[in-house]
Amino acid sequence: MDGLTLYDHPESGNGHKVRLLLSLLNIDYTLVFKDIHKGETRLPDFLAINPNGRIPALQLADGRCLSESNAILFFLAEGTDYMPQDPYLRAKVMSWLMWEQYEHEPTIAVARFWCHHLDMTPDRKALLAEKQTKGKAALALMEKTFSLAEWAVGTDPSIADIALYSYTSVAEEGGISLTPYPAMRQWLNRMAALPGFIPMDPWTG
Amino acid sequence: MDGLTLYDHPESGNGHKVRLLLSLLNIDYTLVFKDIHKGETRLPDFLAINPNGRIPALQLADGRCLSESNAILFFLAEGTDYMPQDPYLRAKVMSWLMWEQYEHEPTIAVARFWCHHLDMTPDRKALLAEKQTKGKAALALMEKTFSLAEWAVGTDPSIADIALYSYTSVAEEGGISLTPYPAMRQWLNRMAALPGFIPMDPWTG
Question: Nearest CA to A181 among A173, A193, A169?
């Protein structure tokens, strides 16, 4: 797949998912930095790429664009080892992608973002604690999963694992300790051992 | 596809998506009511079906289970007219499914739920107003989409439209008027004219 351009920000776990899959698949691409802190994703040139004003967004060689990190993973993984062929396993992958965007990212990623960006008033502290509690519930479900199986779906790594990896690996930056989840930490290590693996960048923002 | 059992609750738009697609595809299934208000989805028998404790969940004839409404749509639609064949259009469908679970359901569906279930303290009123504001932004993006095209992706209805339909059709139950979105209301009418269409049940809870 030639001529890809990824619009992204280094602190984004949603962006890292895409960069990680591109690296695992050894696909070259052009990386364009958009500073989310300066509102660059709300400017007209970017809204023409993603009307929803969010990174990551992927532009194909012919100019067409895709948004939503997990949809980009789905697009890139089809026909590779990172997306199963079996209909039931494919639906299980999709189930994890949906769960990640509904229960995992809005708690674990948002807690991390708030810890770095918000002045912690008492009201916000209470909301942060709620996010952290829900994030821990999400990690508990993952711990149960990885205590029974090496990978999220079937017997091989898939885009379900990639979607779950990025924000889980930096959950502690949002005040959520990974210590209570030993099976999940072993899975994080298995992910980091994949040929072509790249880690999340440390927070610099 | 024979022998399907759907675990569901009549007030759930996530459940309605699945019932709507099954009806459009003329697929028979057994419906099992789980009372979310009485915690029936947190009991061991249901957690064996979906460890995440949420309806809808679909059980196949062989006993295997799927959760996450949009993943169930993906499973049922593959090979039918409701899922395109073209890789780019398939990714666009996926992009809408992800967007719906991240930006639409957590605002529009949650506002509706709160309006029916929560005692409205001043704090909750403020949070509800925030949900409604974000819900309106989601509907504005849909209005822009449907002012340019008849369907969410390509030239035909797909599971992207089905995923967007259910909670949009009852947004007013969450205090979000549909009046400012004429192109979107025309799309709602197009959806309701599909052969086999079934509407959301009125709220009874």
Answer: A169
Rg (CA), chain B: 17
pTM for the predicted model, two decimal places? 0.96
Selection from A161, A154, A1 nearest residue A66 by Cα:
A1
Chain A: residue nearest B106 by CA? A102
Q: Do A71 and B106 touch (CB under 8 A)?
A: no
In the block, tokens 């759930």 appear at B12
Domain count of the fold of chain A: 2
Short-list B93, B127, B149, CA closest to A78: B93
Tell me the three state secondary structure of residue A30. strand
A-B CB pairs within 8 A amount to 92
CATH number of the domain at B73, please: 3.40.30.10
Q: What percentage of residues in chain B have a pLDDT greater than 70?
A: 99
Start-to-end CA span in chain B (Å): 32
CA nearest neighbour of B197 among B50, B21, B71, B56: B21
How far apart CA B50 and CA B44 sit, in angstroms, is 10
Mutate to test the interface with B, among A12, A85, A95 (most CBs of B within 10 A): A95
Partners of residue A78 in chain B, C-beta under 8 Å: 87, 90
Q: Is B75 on the interface with A (CB under 8 A)?
A: yes
- The verdict on A6 touching B (C-beta cutoff 8 Å) is no
Q: Return the structure tokens found at B30.
A: 């057994």
Q: Which ranges of B43-121 does DSSP label H, i.e. alpha helix? A: 44-47, 69-77, 87-99, 110-117
Q: Are residues A178 and A125 in the same domain?
A: yes
Does B87 contact A102 at a Cβ distance shorter than 8 Å? Answer: no
The conformational region for residue B51 under phi > 0 = left, psi -120 to 50 = alpha, else beta, is alpha
Pair of tokens at residue A138 = 């999400």
Sites in chain A below the pLDDT cut of 50: none
Average pLDDT, chain B: 95
Find the residue in A nearest to B87 (Cα).
Answer: A75
| Domain residue limits at A111 | 87-192
Please name the residues in contact with A63: beta carbons below 8 A apart, sequence gap of 6 or more: none
- The CATH number for B122's domain is 1.20.1050.10
A166 lies in some domain: yes
